[in-house]
Amino acid sequence: MRTSLYYFTMLIFSISLSPVSSFGQGQNDPLPVDQDGNVNEDKLNPKQLRAFQELVEFKVNEFQTFLTIISDPKQSDQTRELAIENALRLFMPNSTMQVGSVKTKTLIKEYPLSIYLRRLKNLEKKYFDISITFYDLALINDWEKTNTGYVTTATYFQRFQGKGNNGKIMYEDKTSKNMDVDLRNRKDPFYEENRWTVLLGDIRVAEITPKKSVQ
User: In this predicted structure, what is the pLDDT of residue 172?
Assistant: First the structure.
């Protein structure tokens, strides 16, 4: 079981290191033109925008996979560190993550994403066993045009469970979170040239729901 999980993890890492952040399929589709027939390089056509929505969904799923690896104390330290490194590659610099609990709903804390991922990894000091799973599909809103490109919001739904060494549930909740997404023509780190590229951004708590089994 651990062997198959290891190969699955390495597959995910290899995907994250590939240039999936920039526009692949449909890249050569013609860009929109103005009334005079001039190409508008600051705008994408509807087909391209739909393709980027699919790319956002892929990247959110990828981030969710990294979260399950980082939080899992059964994974090796090297694997979890690699997951942190690759998760950060999906985001814009200085992105933040909001966290809360069912015990302190009105107290929402915000951390730099890099700090949040480290804190997530260190939860093994508090819980003997940790499980983060995701329910329902991530929801991706339509793109909105800005002066620099396009923005949208992705919403994902997460279930957290922490157990003690006796197997008893110490904490459990369900949380929905809203994630900023930025699409613009920027220098792609893989191609070393300007390309339309998606990066994830700040993540905010939308709702926290307790589970009946919370002790």
Answer: 87
Rounded Cα distance between 210 and 150, Å, is 35
Model confidence at 35, pLDDT cuts 50, 70, 90, reads: very low
Cα separation, 151 vs 144, in Å, equals 5
pLDDT at residue 213, as a whole number: 41
Position 3 pLDDT exceeds 50: no
Find all residues with CB under 8 Å of 74, minimum gap 6, and list them: 2
Domain segments of the chain as ranges: 2-210
Q: Where are the beta strands (DSSP E) in 7-148?
A: 96-99, 109-112, 129-134, 139-140, 144-145
Helix or strand run (H / E) with residue 63:
helix 46-71
Supply the CATH classification number for the domain 2-210: 3.10.450.50
